[in-house]
């Protein structure tokens, strides 16, 4: 995000950073701002709401934090950019979308560039020390496939610890007891306040928490909304209306906590009969683990929980495998956004589920790379069969195929499929 913001500030008038609370939006934007206005402060929000145009004064860039509390500001920024195309005027950060009744009248297209910020990716957690890496940008580049070699700095235990630590910068370094206390407060705030704010109406905190736990239990699956409803409302004595179910889902998505990976729907390929169900993820697998009440020992023991067992889904590697896949997906989405040109992230699953690929990174020309995620130190022929099938369907449209695993080394198999430890991947 640092590199993206620095590039954009040199040529764009206004930038909006979206993302869940605690991912680091405020710290990242403040470092680049000449002036910061915190709109989660009611008195400051009232002043800006009274006269948004006057708030857009030098020194620039001016940073408006939690701008969704003053939705009128969005249109004022848009008009200011229309009148003054000088780059680097405004930074906006929001941890929620405004309620429907208060949404801006214009999307900001052509005036405000929006970027999504997520918790720390794996490469950010490891840091910039001299180590072996595999570049996603290189894998996305046409031409002969790059050789893969090098060793991973992480073991299976490191992945378990990192899942539990979360990617929230201010939380992850805390001792276990304090980290859980912070996550308890995080969940309490979003269930009792954040969801209510985006809905514009009272919400039931206990019900919201049960929905969060249902999504956590279904991590890395395409479980239907109806099955999730059964898990989230078990014991309530009734089935909520579909409108109620959709309202909870939409609210969690609008505060950037529910973060599903969309299904790939390609055009002009040999693929057909693809499913359209998203793959379920919360914003951070550590948050999912906290909601499920598990720790790293539970993951390493291969254990499960009653909530997870209540979700009828097949998971490679059990709960640990599902959370590891979620950690990889979180990182790959971040790496995709960091590319010089637009790259989308999706998954692929045929109707009936007989063919499924965990993730694809798709360029605008529809050329792509595909990856499978395996909680394993070794990769065998069975682990690559879906990637080999996809290669047969897409031909040269598939630039590369890799298995992302927890093992010690990167290499290419005789069939050309890459094997890469998750800890070696970088943008």
Characterization of the model:
The protein has 427 residues and is of the alpha/beta class. It folds into two domains: 115 residues, Rossmann fold (3-Layer(aba) Sandwich), CATH 3.40.50; 304 residues, no CATH class. Helix content is 38%, strand content 15%. It has a six-stranded mixed β-sheet with strand order 7-8-9-10-12-11, sandwiched between helices. It has a five-stranded parallel β-sheet with strand order 2-3-4-1-5, sandwiched between helices. The mean pLDDT is 93.
Give a quick summary of the entry.
The protein has 427 residues and is of the alpha/beta class.
Keywords summarizing the entry:
alpha/beta, five-stranded parallel β-sheet, six-stranded mixed β-sheet, 13 strands, globular, about 15% strand, Rossmann fold, about 425 residues
**Strand order, biggest sheet?**
7-8-9-10-12-11
Structural class: alpha/beta
How many beta-strand segments? Answer: 13
Biggest beta sheet summary:
6 strands, mixed
Number of helices: 17
Roughly what percent helix? 25-40%
Multimer state:
single chain
Mean pLDDT: 93
Q: How are helices and strands ordered from N to C?
A: HEHEHHEHEEHEHHHHHHHHHHEEEHEEEE
- Contiguous runs where pLDDT drops below 50 for at least 5 residues: none
Straight-line N-to-C gap: 11 Å
What is the 3D form?
Answer: globular
Question: Roughly what fraction of the amino acids lie in strands?
Answer: 5-15%
What is the alpha-carbon Rg in Å? 22 Å
- Domains, number: 2
Structural topology:
Elements: H1 2-9, E1 14-18, H2 25-30, E2 35-38, H3 42-50, H4 52-55, E3 62-65, H5 72-83, E4 90-94, E5 112-116, H6 122-126, E6 134-135, H7 136-139, H8 156-165, H9 176-199, H10 205-217, H11 225-232, H12 242-254, H13 285-292, H14 296-300, H15 306-310, H16 318-337, E7 343-349, E8 356-363, E9 368-373, H17 385-394, E10 398-405, E11 411-412, E12 418-421, E13 425-426
Parallel strand pairs: 1-4, 1-5, 2-3, 3-4, 6-13, 9-10, 10-12
Antiparallel strand pairs: 7-8, 8-9, 11-12
């Amino acid at each position: 995000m640092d590199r993206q913001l620095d590039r954009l500030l040199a040529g764009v008038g206004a930038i909006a950073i979206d993302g869940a609370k605690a991912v680091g939006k405020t710290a990242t934007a403040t470092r680049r701002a000449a002036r910061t206005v915190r709109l989660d402060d009611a008195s400051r929000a009232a002043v800006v709401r009274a006269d948004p145009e006057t708030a857009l004064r030098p020194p620039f860039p001016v940073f408006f934090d939690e701008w969704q509390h003053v939705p009128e500001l969005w249109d004022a920024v848009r008009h200011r950019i229309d009148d003054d195309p000088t780059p680097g005027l405004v930074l906006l950060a929001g941890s929620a979308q405004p309620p429907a009744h208060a949404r801006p009248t214009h999307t900001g297209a052509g005036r405000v560039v929006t970027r999504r910020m997520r918790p720390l990716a794996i490469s950010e957690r490891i840091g910039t020390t001299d180590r072996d890496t595999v570049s996603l940008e290189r894998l996305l580049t046409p031409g002969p496939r790059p050789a893969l070699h090098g060793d991973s700095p992480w073991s299976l235990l490191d992945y378990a610890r990192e899942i539990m630590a979360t990617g929230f910068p201010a939380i992850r370094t805390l001792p276990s007891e304090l980290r859980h206390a912070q996550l308890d407060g995080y969940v309490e705030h979003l269930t009792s306040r954040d969801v209510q704010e985006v809905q514009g109406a009272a919400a039931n905190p206990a019900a919201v928490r049960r929905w969060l736990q249902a999504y956590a239990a279904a991590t890395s699956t395409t479980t239907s909304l109806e099955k999730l409803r059964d898990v989230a409302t078990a014991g309530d004595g009734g089935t909520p209306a579909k409108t109620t179910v959709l309202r909870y889902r939409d609210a969690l998505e609008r505060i950037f906590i529910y973060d599903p990976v969309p299904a790939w729907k390609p055009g002009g390929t040999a693929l057909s009969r693809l499913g359209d169900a998203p793959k379920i993820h919360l914003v951070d697998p550590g948050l999912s683990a906290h909601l499920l009440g598990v720790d790293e020992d539970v993951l390493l023991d291969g254990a499960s929980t009653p909530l997870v067992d209540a979700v009828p889904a097949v998971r490679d590697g059990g709960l640990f495998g599902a959370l590891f896949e979620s950690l990889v997906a979180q990182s790959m989405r971040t790496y995709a956004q960091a590319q010089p040109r637009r790259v989308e992230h999706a998954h692929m699953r045929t109707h009936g589920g007989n063919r499924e690929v965990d993730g694809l990174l798709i360029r605008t020309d529809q050329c792509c790379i595909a990856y499978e995620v395996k909680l394993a130190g070794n990769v065998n022929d069975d682990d690559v069969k879906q990637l080999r099938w996809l290669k047969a369907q897409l031909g040269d449209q598939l630039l590369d195929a890799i298995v992302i695993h927890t093992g010690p080394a990167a290499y290419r198999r005789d069939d050309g499929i890459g094997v890469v430890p998750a800890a070696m991947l970088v943008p």
